[in-house]
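Before a colleague's protein record goes any further, I have to sign it off. Alongside the sequence sits a line of tokens, each denoting a local backbone shape. I want your independent view on whether this chain really folds as the tokens say. Where you disagree with what is written, explain briefly why. This is what I was given:
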Amino acid sequence: MTKVQQTASYTDVTAKKGVFQKLKAIGPGAVITASFIGPGTVTTATRAGASFGYSILWAVVFSIIATIVLQEMSARLGVISRKGLGEAIHDQFQKPFLKFASIWLVVISIGVGCAAYISGDLLGTSMGISTLFSIPQQFVSPFIGVVILILGLSGSYRLIEKVMLGLVVVMSLTFITTMIVVKPDIGAVFSGAFLPSAPSGSMLVIIALIGTTVVPYNFFIHSTMVQERWTSVKDIKEARIDTVVSIAVGGFITAAILITAGATMHGMEVQNVADLSYQLEPLFGSWAKTFICIGIFAAGFSSALASPLGAAVAISSVLKWEGGMRNKKFKLIFSGVILIGISTSVIGFNPMEILLMAQALNGILLPIIAIYLLIVMNNKNLLGTQRNSMKLNLIGGLVILVCLFLGGFSLIDAVRSFLS
């Protein structure tokens, strides 16, 4: 081998190692991706594709950009300040009223929201197994709840990170492969992704697509989990790669579900996300149901794990409980949320009124928590030179304005539904 060939070979190996090292950085961002791709996202994306084809695919693109912007801030906050978002909010305000109001807004709204959604998350998780083996969901969901409870009580962020990363891989293989197999119209896909439109009756679905992706409690999870992985300003680049790559993959999974539904179910009324499997039988044969049910299970399990984790992280952070997941109070919050989910799923209770309240609460909460995040990210004493630039503030402000509009629309709709 000549000297030139040896140099080229060494360069190739170095490049490969560089890519491998970058992939090894994937972790906390994957937890966020696994968190927002739950039963709500899968169902909403399926209905969006079935009802409107590819025309509102742009909402997925916007939601992913918004999520990357806000989650990058959360990750940077955790790495540089060594504080979670809750702790930073606690320390931001000196006036007693503002401090008290901020703390209890987070405690009550995040806690109630996660408790309201956990039953649906567990039932969504059990849907895959229930559909595949014809076992009632009420029998499957408690078992899944116990497994999640054991994971939470383990006190290990890294274990949860590995589980979530594995679920993201499963969802990617399932839903992206499915999209490729159905051979969608590429021109129509790009048109729907980059030429915004709002067909009649689509506004609530657009809001739902964005609302199931940009999730307030994920800001708290992210700012806490990055502290387990990175420790200094030199790690910011890795944390940013993790955030952008992981969330982009999550967006691709959501888009894949919508595109698949648009290609196979356009014009149909979706009763259940498992309906997608019947439309894929001509392509997958008897494996269609198995394939889709695995994806549904992975999506549900990741979201069901994230709900109690989000509640426990947010509350323990804003109340400044030390010890992270090993703290007894943390475990108590985690266990309480899971037990609520197990209890309501066992009796087949569908807490529609609570879910409507949680929907309204999320409509208000998202822009408020995003505003808190933006305020904290401009704290020079906390972040020094790593505080937000003017450009990031403008982008973040634009995202908040859109969330305010969508949140207001969602709140009005939830109130109307509640009254009716």
Residues 29-419 form a domain with the Amino acid/polyamine transporter I fold (CATH 1.20.1740.10).
